[in-house]
């Protein structure tokens, strides 16, 4: 419980008297790009998202490429550069652009109230709302969010609590609980794992993470993200394509049907293959969907269903 006048660790909530104030009715960006860029590969492929980023995050990852916006309130060098948003304006722009809405780049659970206000207007307009989240939510927050968002992509950044604590400053188990609960509630779920040197990049860590994802569901898409030296982790090399290829192999060995790498393995790393006949059924470029040979969510060649929300 915050004391009067105290700001939370996140830096974007403050108690003033009996009122809890939030700075997250604001965004540092508003741009439209492909759902594939979030990344969502099995949710409305070829669709576009109006992307918002309310300032702040519940984690302090040393590799954060978005630290200039995620660490507002934690680091004095990060200036406030967010603009207030009106949910009606956000939804009107999404409708005009024929786009859905995604909260990304920072931690959307800190902007739960903004999400609620946006969803209240977006849902009647037929606009879907997605989150790209670190998954560190209380059960109460998951309960509220699961009734709001149509899809989530959640990071699993380490295999064990000690490694996760060292990397993010938070324990792992609440993240896994969040993933299981979103899946149980029927929210479309994709998982992302950045290959961080010293933690998740180790093959045994990747294998443990892959098994945890497969335990939620073999159909859950698993996105593997190349490490790039930045922020407080500039002394490490980028992940090699060979290590990413090995990570893909580990994912398939754990039973996952859909394991993806955005760039380093070329077009095959982004392609969806049919689990029935192994034919490529969805092709993607780095920036967008290129071709889908699905018919009603099924392989056009062998009729095997491919899990996803395809329209
Ligand atoms: S959870 Fe994501 S946005 Fe937050 S600090 Fe970690 S990498 Fe950055």
TrEMBL record:
Keyword Mitochondrion included in the entry's annotation: no
UniProt cross-references to CDD domains, sorted A to Z: Radical_SAM
InterPro entries per UniProt: Aldolase_TIM (IPR013785), AmmeMemoSam_rS (IPR027596), Elp3/MiaA/NifB-like_rSAM (IPR006638), Organic_radical-activating (IPR034457), Pyrv-formate_lyase-activ_prd (IPR016431), rSAM (IPR007197), rSAM_sf (IPR058240)
Keywords on record: 4Fe-4S, Iron, Iron-sulfur, Lyase, Metal-binding, Oxidoreductase, Pyruvate, S-adenosyl-L-methionine
Documented EC number(s): 1.97.1.4
Domain Radical SAM core: 42-263
GO molecular function, one term: metal ion binding
Cofactor(s) the record lists: [4Fe-4S] cluster
Keyword 4Fe-4S: yes
UniProt-annotated binding residues for [4Fe-4S] cluster: 57, 61, 64
Cofactor note: Binds 1 [4Fe-4S] cluster. The cluster is coordinated with 3 cysteines and an exchangeable S-adenosyl-L-methionine.
Source species, domain of life: Bacteria
Name this polypeptide is given: Pyruvate formate lyase activating enzyme
Lineage: Bacteria, Bacillati, Actinomycetota, Actinomycetes, Micromonosporales
């Amino acid at each position: 419980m915050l004391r009067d006048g105290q700001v939370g660790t996140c830096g974007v909530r403050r108690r003033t008297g009996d009122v809890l104030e939030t700075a997250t009715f604001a965004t540092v960006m508003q741009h439209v790009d492909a759902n594939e860029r979030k990344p969502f590969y099995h949710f409305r492929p070829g669709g576009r998202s109006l992307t918002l980023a309310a300032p702040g995050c519940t984690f302090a990852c040393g590799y954060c490429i978005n630290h200039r916006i995620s660490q507002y309130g934690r680091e004095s060098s990060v200036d406030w550069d967010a603009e207030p948003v009106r949910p009606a304006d956000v939804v009107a722009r999404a409708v005009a652009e024929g786009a859905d809405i995604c909260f990304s780049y920072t931690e959307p659970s800190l902007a739960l109230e903004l999400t609620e206000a946006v969803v209240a207007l977006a849902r009647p307009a037929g606009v879907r709302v997605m989150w790209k989240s670190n998954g560190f939510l209380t059960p109460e927050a998951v309960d509220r969010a699961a009734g709001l968002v149509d899809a989530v992509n959640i990071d699993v950044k380490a295999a064990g609590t000690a490694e996760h604590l060292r990397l993010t400053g938070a324990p792992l188990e609440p993240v896994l609980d969040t993933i299981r609960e979103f899946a149980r509630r029927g929210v479309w779920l994709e998982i992302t794992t950045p290959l961080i040197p010293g933690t998740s990049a180790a093959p045994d860590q990747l294998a443990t993470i892959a098994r945890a994802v497969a335990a939620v569901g073999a159909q859950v898409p698993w996105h593997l993200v190349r490490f790039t030296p930045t922020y407080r982790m500039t002394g490490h090399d980028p992940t090699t394509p060979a290590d990413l290829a090995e990570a893909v192999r580990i994912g398939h060995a754990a039973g996952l049907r859909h394991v993806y790498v955005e760039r380093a393995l070329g077009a095959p790393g982004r392609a969806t293959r049919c689990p029935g006949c192994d034919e490529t059924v969805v092709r993607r470029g780095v920036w967008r969907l290129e071709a889908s040979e699905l018919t009603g969510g099924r392989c056009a060649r062998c009729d095997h269903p491919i899990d996803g929300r395809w329209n």
